[in-house]
Amino acid sequence: MDRKNSESWKVKTKTMLKLSRYILYDILRNKIIIAYTLFLLVISISMFRMEENSSKAILSLMNIILIVLPLISLVFTTIHYYNSYEFIELMLSQPMSRTRILLSEYSGICISLLTSFFIGIGIPVLLYSPDATGIALLFTGSALTLVFTSLAFFASVISRDKAKGIGIALLLWFYFTLIYDGIVMLILFAFSDYPLEKFTLVLSALNPVDLGRIFIMLKMDVSALMGYTGALYKDFFGGGWGLLFTTGIMFLWVVLPLWVSVRYFKRKDL
Amino acid sequence: MIRIENISKKFKRLQALDRVNVEFHKGQVVSLIGPNGSGKTTLIKCILGMVRPNSGRISVNNEYIGEDPRYKNDIGYMPQIGRYPDNMKVGQLFEMLENIRNQSADHLDKELIHQFHLTTIFEKPMRTLSGGTRQKVSAAVAFLFNPGILILDEPTAGLDPLASEILKEKILKEKRKGKLILITSHILSDLEELTTHIMYMQDGKMEFVKDMQTLREETGELRLSKAIAKIMKGESLGTTWIEKILNPGK
């Protein structure tokens, strides 16, 4: 019985990968993804060329990664989802389960966005600054790509209308890059009389962008500027636990929205 | 082969399907007709599992359909509007579908691919194709895996007369093999020579399923369009759409 199960699982993965291959092929010929790669490449090379100190360049790249990357992942994924609506319909008329169709789409988009990221930022970083900070930057960038692609699937699956889907995706972006920070500031300001260090740690887990920022910052020397909280963070994120914690939380941020989307997609009328 | 039991589907306020009960068997060519928005496509999509009905159930080849998509191995579907990934080439589409279905090559039915001369455009990306050519591709895809059940949504709309004739010949050929074929169309003259049964839908309700012989006997009309028009009037369904189709001039 077990063997039969693993066999059928193998067949399933195989057909999924087959489908992803075609989705990937379709996306890689898309001009937007090529433009995105070139954009990242130009920015990262010019950063490293202009700044004398490579850690300054990393800092600027970090801001790009934390702001632009989520935006592109969200918008690109949402638009791609709506553009491949008919393709999904075609696949549904074939003996393919809905879960497999959606996960194939997801892996197809993720692979292409990650490829762009590695060509555009990965290669320059590894060339100019192949240290722990650089690796942390690449790790955060890849994780954020996966997280925001997952969130974009959530946004597009729950709304039938393209404009609404992109609207929700943009709102998510505003929330995670701007609004959330504002809320955190407000909380910290209002409760500044209380010891909030542990609490801010929890708050950081609730926003993948913040988590990524802290994770990269602590690999740099600037954490000394952050005072007592910085020291606490350094203590927590500096060791192996920090990596484990970040990976775990990022993983949850990838899996949860995707899981909700798959569940919703299974019941959806197409 | 297909059994539909008490299917209802509501889209927000619109009752798209209202307690539809019907059964289709091997060797039948069933024409699904009814005005726009009468639930024909919704019914087809329910069979294909694209739309989840609110209540009722459907069985295909004696098995109730659920999460397991394997029953679709025996169904060929030609959608009303076939749209495909823009950058995918025609040849790749067929290659991909063959890959997914994993059927042995000698079971494939490539007759339509050859008759429509689709091999000559195998290198063209899908986005460059005209609407009619896409229809040809959709048709070839539906017949490709030699399925026991064919579901064709407006198959001849958009095809040139020659292609439409080829497709009709193909449908007749598959009918002779004893397959179940479901067709929706507004062009009644196209259905005339193919169909064995008529299913008429309106406002999400199934009004009747009749075989052609009964229909002709009951109405005393030989031509399908006239027979249906007579039935409509006789049952006074309060509709004039059929007359518009019959006499577009008036």
Short key terms for the protein model shown above:
A: 270 residues; mainly alpha; B: 250 residues; alpha/beta; 4-stranded antiparallel β-sheet; 9 helices; 10 strands
Shape category of chain A: globular
Q: How far apart are the termini of chain B?
A: 41 Å
Radius of gyration of chain A: 20 Å
| Most strands sheet of chain A | none
Give the averaged pLDDT of chain B, no decimals. 84
- What general outline of chain B do the C-alpha atoms trace? globular
Tell me the strand percentage band of chain A: under 5%
- End-to-end Cα distance of chain A: 35 Å
State mean pLDDT of chain A (0 to 100 scale).
86
**Greatest interface and its participating residue counts:** A-B, 28 and 32 residues
Stretches with pLDDT under 50, minimum 5 residues of chain B: 236-240
Number of strands of chain B: 10
Strand order of the largest sheet of chain B: 6-7-8-3-9-10
Please count the beta strands of chain A (DSSP E, at least 2 residues each): 0
Structure at a glance:
Chain A is mostly helical. Chain A has helices at 2-28, 31-50, 54-83, 85-92, 98-128, 132-158, 162-190, 197-205, 208-217, 227-238, 240-267. Chain B has helices spanning 40-47, 90-101, 111-115, 131-144, 161-176, 188-192, 212-219, 224-234, 241-246; strands at 2-11, 14-24, 29-33, 55-60, 63-64, 75-78, 149-153, 180-184, 197-202, 205-211.
